[in-house]
Amino acid sequence: MNTAADAVRYNDRRHVFHSWSAQKLVDPMPVAGGEGSFFWDHAGHRYFDLGSQTVNLNLGHQHPKLVAAIQTQAARLCTIAPWFANEARGEAARLISERTPGDLNHVFFTNGGAEATENAARMARLHTGRHKILTAYRSYHGATGAAIAYTGDPRRWGSEPTIGGVIHFHGPYPYRSSFHAVDDAEECERALAHLEQTIVFEGPHTVAAVMLETVVGTNGILVPPEGYLAGVREICDRFGIVMICDEVMAGFGGCGEWFAVQHWQVTPDLITFAKGVNSGYVPLGGVAISERIAATFADRAYPGGLTYSGHPLACAAAVASIQIIEEEGLLCNANRLGNDLIWPGLRALMEDHPSVGEVRGLGCFWAIELVRDRATREMLVPFNASGPEAAPMARITAACKEHGVWPFTHFNRVHVAPPIN
Ligand SMILES: Cc1ncc(COP(=O)(O)O)c(C=O)c1O
């Protein structure tokens, strides 16, 4: 072993079992450090973090105030059981509640996004006394037992058969419409009609919740057309169904609002969050809960919990993150970066480059959709491609890295989701 990087690699390859990977085929790059929008390897190669790691690092690497808040909390009290009240926990819950729309005034803390979607669905089932959960194709809701069942992309396939009672529907995607729609308005109308029909055919009295990513993240940065979320809200109200917005990726500033749903002035019954709540400096997620659903568990015990629910280090990091977003005006900044820099840049790329079929997004949350042919919209690589079929995307990834950019790619897309500061 010659270098520090070799030592890191040595332990990693012998002992670390990596997510979503054939263990023999991965060779993770040892990372030595990071600051702001950049991180670097042991040889000093610097990379611009175009995807904010897993689209969680909204405040960039090593924000000094965030690091200091964790250090202060660590010196005071590292951990405390979930049944106690604690300053960091209470303050984080208050700050989050004050930023959610409507009366989502209660927060159940988890360790991450999957546990948040699991618990939101459980709350919806117990609240309604119904069992089915409707989620969209082209969605990701996490990789634990039920969360992977809610997921509407190929990551679910390897875990099937999953729990029953999960029904998938098609959400709006104007560029590749499942409804042969010609514009956003038609896509919206037809996607809502399809959702309503799915509910009717499933039996509305059996449907507990519609869970959807407010702005679909990994599956394409799909910004809902005007009227879609309001339409989902109306359908849910009409059938007594709980509306769950999964904001694990879209929440806490990436879309230029605390919660993306606030762009469309819609109030869901439950919001799931994680990632950007504290930029992942300490794992944290949660469910923001409306008064009505919280009331279900006023006199009846909620049958769920986690050893680290409301972990003080994670909550102190959330408190600091929210303060930093406010002090540094980062919601405005995300919109400014989107409107003044990312959108004009991506539009120019689209005008110049025949392989760019569409660019779309908002705030600091964008996708470049690559095609073989603009007229037919044939994807640059097939759906769920791997190995040789995915070679063109692998070449793009390699070229980005050669030029000091660490991209987040998925299928035929490059996602542009840098830190919002
Ligand atoms: C929309 C959405 N929901 C849920 C999750 C799962 O979160 P976690 O990986 O923290 O369990 C993710 C993760 O990428 C996500 O993007």
| Count of helical regions | 12
Structural class by SSE content: alpha/beta
In percent terms, what proportion of residues is strand? 15-25%
Spans of at least 5 consecutive residues with low confidence:
none
Oligomer: single chain
State the end-to-end distance.
38 Å
Total strands: 16
Mean pLDDT: 98
Share of residues in helices: 25-40%
Based on CA atoms alone, the radius of gyration comes out at 21 Å
Structural summary, described in words:
- The chain is an alpha/beta fold and 421 residues long.
- The chain contains twelve helices and 16 strands.
- Helix 3 packs antiparallel against helix 10 (312-327), helix 4 (87-99) crosses helix 10 (312-327) and helix 7 packs parallel to helix 8.
- The protein is globular.
- The structure holds pyridoxal-5'-phosphate.
- Residues 54, 112-114, 117, 140-142, 213, 217-218, 246, 248-249, 274, 285 line the site of pyridoxal-5'-phosphate.
- Pyridoxal-5'-phosphate is lined by residues 54, 112-114, 117, 140-142, 213, 217-218, 246, 248-249, 274, 285.
Please write out the topology.
Elements: H1 4-15, E1 31-35, E2 38-41, E3 46-49, H2 52-55, H3 64-76, H4 87-99, E4 104-110, H5 113-128, E5 132-136, H6 145-150, E6 166-169, H7 184-202, E7 207-213, H8 228-239, E8 242-246, E9 270-273, E10 285-290, H9 291-296, H10 312-327, H11 330-352, E11 356-362, E12 365-373, E13 378-379, H12 391-402, E14 405-406, E15 408-410, E16 413-416
Parallel strand pairs: 3-14, 5-6, 5-7, 7-8, 8-9
Antiparallel strand pairs: 1-2, 2-3, 4-10, 9-10, 11-12, 12-13, 12-16, 15-16
The structure holds pyridoxal-5'-phosphate.
